[in-house]
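Lecture notes, part 5. Sequence design as translation. It can be helpful to think of inverse folding as translation between two languages: the language of shapes and the language of residues. The source text, in C-alpha cells, appears below.
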C-alpha cells in the first residue's frame, strides 16, 4: 500500500495587491506518495511555484492544511518551519544559490552544519556525492564563480541531498542550463529517484517532465488532471513522450 509522505487539505493561498485579492491556490487536496517523482506543470501564473513553496514550508498557506506524514505543519511558526525544512527537505532552484565567499566543498557542508551535523563520515559522504555527480577533487577548493552553471547546479544538488531529505523540492532546476548540463542534472534526479528519493519538481519543459512518474497539471490554482508514467528508462521514450504530449494537449497546454 502506498504511503503519502505529504498531503494537503483544502489548501488556499491568497495574495493582496493594491487592495485586490488574488486567489492563487484554491481549496487544493493533494497527496504526494513516498518515493514518487511528482512533476507540477501548468501555464504561467497557474500557481506552480506558489504550490511548491506551500508544500515545502517555505511559505504559509492562507487557509487549509499541509501534513508531512501525520504532522500538520501549516500552523508552525517561522522558526519551526526553518527547523522542519532543515530536517526533512532539500531544495534545488533555477537560480543557483551557492555562497560566493565559500569554496565548493564548504558550500556543500553548509547544509550539514545547518542541521548540526558534522562528522568524518559526513565529510566522506560529501566527497562521494561530489564525485558521483562529476565534481572531482580539483574543483572542491574552487569558488563558485570558477565553475560552469551546470557544475554549480550539480553542487547545489549535493548540498540539497547531503542530509538525506525525505523530500527533494525542485523549482525549474534546468531552467537556466544548456541542453547538455540539463541532461546531466536530470540524470542525477533520475538516479536519486531510482534509489527511493521522493521528488516534487516544477517545470514548464516537456523533456524535463518526462523524468517523473506522475505529472499533475495546475490551472488557476487547481489540479485539473494528472498523468501517470512508469519509471524513466523502463519504457519506450517515444511512447512516453507521445503519451505525455497527448495529456498536455488535453489540458490545453
Amino acid at each position: 500500500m502506498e504511503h503519502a509522505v505529504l498531503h494537503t487539505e483544502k489548501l488556499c493561498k491568497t495574495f493582496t495587491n493594491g487592495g485586490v485579492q488574488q486567489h492563487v491556490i484554491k481549496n487544493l487536496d493533494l497527496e504526494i506518495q513516498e518515493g514518487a517523482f511528482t512533476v507540477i506543470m501548468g501555464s504561467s501564473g497557474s500557481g506552480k511555484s506558489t504550490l511548491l513553496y506551500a508544500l515545502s514550508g517555505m511559505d504559509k498557506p492562507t487557509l487549509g492544511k499541509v501534513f508531512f506524514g501525520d504532522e500538520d505543519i501549516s500552523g508552525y511558526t517561522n522558526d519551526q518551519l526553518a527547523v522542519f525544512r532543515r530536517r526533512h527537505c532539500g531544495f534545488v532552484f533555477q537560480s543557483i544559490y551557492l555562497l560566493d565567499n565559500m569554496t565548493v566543498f564548504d558550500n556543500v557542508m553548509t547544509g550539514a552544519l545547518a542541521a548540526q551535523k558534522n562528522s568524518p563520515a559526513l565529510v566522506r559522504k560529501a566527497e562521494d556525492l561530489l564525485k558521483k555527480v562529476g565534481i572531482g577533487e580539483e574543483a572542491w577548493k574552487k569558488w563558485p564563480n570558477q565553475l560552469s552553471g551546470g557544475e554549480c547546479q550539480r553542487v547545489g544538488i549535493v548540498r540539497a541531498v547531503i542530509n538525506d531529505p525525505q523530500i527533494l523540492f525542485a523549482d525549474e532546476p534546468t531552467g537556466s542550463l544548456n541542453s547538455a548540463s540539463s541532461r546531466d542534472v536530470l540524470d542525477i534526479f533520475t538516479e536519486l529517484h531510482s534509489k527511493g528519493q521522493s521528488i516534487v519538481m516544477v517545470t514548464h519543459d516537456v523533456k524535463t517532465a518526462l523524468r517523473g512518474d506522475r505529472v499533475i497539471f495546475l490551472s488557476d490554482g487547481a489540479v485539473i488532471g494528472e498523468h501517470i508514467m512508469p519509471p524513466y528508462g523502463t519504457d519506450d521514450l517515444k511512447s512516453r513522450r507521445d503519451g505525455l504530449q497527448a495529456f498536455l494537449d488535453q489540458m490545453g497546454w
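The translated text above is only one of many valid answers, since several sequences can fold into similar shapes. The beta strands are 4-17, 20-33, 37-42, 63-68, 71-72, 89-93, 167-171, 198-202, 214-219, 222-228.
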